[in-house]
Amino acid sequence: MNKTDLETIRAKLLARRDAILEERGRSFRRMQESTCDVAADPVDRAAGNCDFDVAVGQASIEGEELVAVAEALARIEDGAFGLCEECEQPIGDKRLLALPSARYCIGCQTALEKAGLDPLGA
Ligand SMILES: [Zn+2]
């Protein structure tokens, strides 16, 4: 991966991080402003489409992505960016440009998905 691509990816990651932080702020506000009865039976809440639960789920997804993005930024700092965490082979520039927070090469990613593991950052 050349320097220009790496800078492009770093800029993408930083932009994504800011966007997630903003979304998270909104999710947390939704939790606070939620009018649903959080003490109600979870089944009733699910049926009633409780916005609190939706916001919690959303915040949790955002939290996971935030970790993936932060880890990718840390790997850029370390000079370890672009290597698959599983087989330590290059992930591939195309894949990284499309998905800067990818942790695995496409082969390992597919294998992990087949194994039913949760390959975060895919
Ligand atoms: Zn791999």
Unreliable stretches = none
- Which ligands occur here? zinc ion
Count of β-strands: 0
| Shape assignment | elongated
CATH architecture: Up-down Bundle
Task: Quickly count the helices.
Answer: 5
The percent range for strand residues is under 5%
For the sheet with most strands, the description reads: none
List keywords for this structure.
122 residues, mainly alpha, Four Helix Bundle (Hemerythrin (Met), subunit A), 5 helices, binds zinc ion
Question: Could you characterize what this model shows?
Answer:
Helices cover 66% and strands 0% of the residues. The chain is mainly α. It has one domain: DksA, coiled-coil domain (Four Helix Bundle (Hemerythrin (Met), subunit A), Up-down Bundle), CATH 1.20.120. Helix 1 (3-33) runs antiparallel to helix 3. It is elongated, with a radius of gyration of 18 Å. The mean pLDDT is 87. Zinc ion binds at residues 84, 86-87, 89, 104-105, 107-108.
Short description:
With 122 residues, this protein is mainly α. 66% of the residues lie in helices and 0% in strands. α1 (3-33) runs antiparallel to α3.
Blueprint (SSEs and pairs):
Layout: H1 3-33, H2 42-47, H3 51-78, H4 93-98, H5 106-114
This protein binds zinc ion.
